[in-house]
Design brief:
Number of strands: 3
Distance between the termini: 43 Å
Strand order of the largest sheet: 1-2-3
Strand content: 5-15%
Radius of gyration: 17 Å
Number of helices: 4
Order of helices and strands: HEHEHEH
Structural class: alpha/beta
Shape: elongated
Length: 101
């Protein structure tokens, strides 16, 4: 199944008689996709299933590679998070001028 159908299943009503509540929010994690393909997010938006946030690879969050995903998310009011706290090595002792912990 596609991403949108999985998100729809997670956010949709549970089967009758289920003991637990449904999932309240879904974050679309694209941090493992170094191409920053916007297709999974666009598929969700087209199917009208809006994730609460999208996670993109940190090294692409502020570059042209990630701009399509970031732009789509921002237009839809979806939070964008960088998936790599070190931004792909950008925040390192080379740039900060201090040794890594």
């Amino acid at each position: 199944p596609g991403v949108a159908s999985i998100v729809a299943f997670m956010l949709g009503p549970l089967e009758e008689g289920a003991e637990e509540g449904k999932v309240k929010a879904v974050s679309l994690d694209l941090s493992g996709d170094n191409t920053c393909d916007p297709a999974p997010l666009r598929e969700c938006l087209k199917a009208e299933f809006k994730p609460k946030s999208v996670v993109v690879p940190g090294m692409h969050a502020l570059t042209r590679v990630g701009e399509r995903v970031v732009a789509d998310a921002m237009r839809a009011g979806i939070a964008v998070y960088a998936g790599d706290a070190l931004l792909g090595g950008l925040v390192s002792e080379r740039y900060l001028g201090i040794p890594a912990p």
